[in-house]
């Protein structure tokens, strides 16, 4: 008995499944473990801070240094000082970093661009304590006459209201130090993103008669905008968590102050923890850990906001 085959029936060609090599299985398993380890460490840190912070949230007024009645009254000036110093640093660092990155990627000769790139990368390796010493010994005395002039000329503006600090150790000096510290991070990432701009986009803009700066405006900056945001958020994270430079330069005051040039300045959460943790005991340790939890939440919120902004332009991104 013969079996008839329908000549019209389609023949389904199923691709043969490639045999997975042992090295591929080991590598994929290690990548999954590494990714899960990052999440586990982050969750462990969050749980530790939360558990240890609970006694500090309900600590009596006698456990706080200064005239504070509860934890939130204690942490609010510190959170303000942290965000205020980091925001001022980003206002200074981001435009300068973008300018340096554009100069290296589109203006400077190749040999000069390579040298500047190496210098920028080396600047990121300088310890923060060195920046703190530079801020105290060089930058603050150098800026003090400038602060006095600002108060004389623009003292009517609330941010520049006097009296000017006699030592130059102000929140603006701290912002300049933080800007120098985050500048190599932002510059390096922006430089790499600008170099990834499609050549066809740049050539099309130049072919239409655009100048080099107009080409950068039309092609490079729109393409690199998500990368600029990513670089800025990384720099902001460094500025928010900086400890030694702020603790060494700033003369802290436990209050909310917007003036940039006075001797009284709001402290930051990392600097406050570094200055008070060696002498803390009992509930005082829980209070400091509670402020660390607030800093953890602020940093996490900033990074989540940056990711939302980047995802809106994911289709035209130099950072993804």
From TrEMBL:
Superkingdom assignment: Bacteria
PROSITE patterns recorded: ABC_TM1 (PS50928)
Entry's localization field: Cell membrane
Main location: membrane
Mode of membrane association: Multi-pass membrane protein
Domain ABC transmembrane type-1: 79-306
Transmembrane intervals: 26-54, 74-104, 116-140, 171-189, 287-310
Keywords for the protein's UniProt record, in alphabetical order: Cell membrane, Membrane, Phosphate transport, Transmembrane, Transmembrane helix, Transport
CDD domains: TM_PBP2 (cd06261)
UniProt xrefs under InterPro entries: MetI-like, MetI-like_sf, Phosphate_PstC, Phosphate_Transport_Permease
NCBIfam families: phosphate_pstC (TIGR02138)
Assigned protein family: Belongs to the binding-protein-dependent transport system permease family. CysTW subfamily.
Function: Part of the binding-protein-dependent transport system for phosphate; probably responsible for the translocation of the substrate across the membrane.
PANTHER family registered for this protein in UniProt: PHOSPHATE TRANSPORT SYSTEM PERMEASE PROTEIN PST (PTHR30425), PHOSPHATE TRANSPORT SYSTEM PERMEASE PROTEIN PSTC (PTHR30425:SF1)
Name under which the protein is recorded: Phosphate transport system permease protein
Species name: Leifsonia kafniensis
Gene name for this UniProt entry: pstC_2
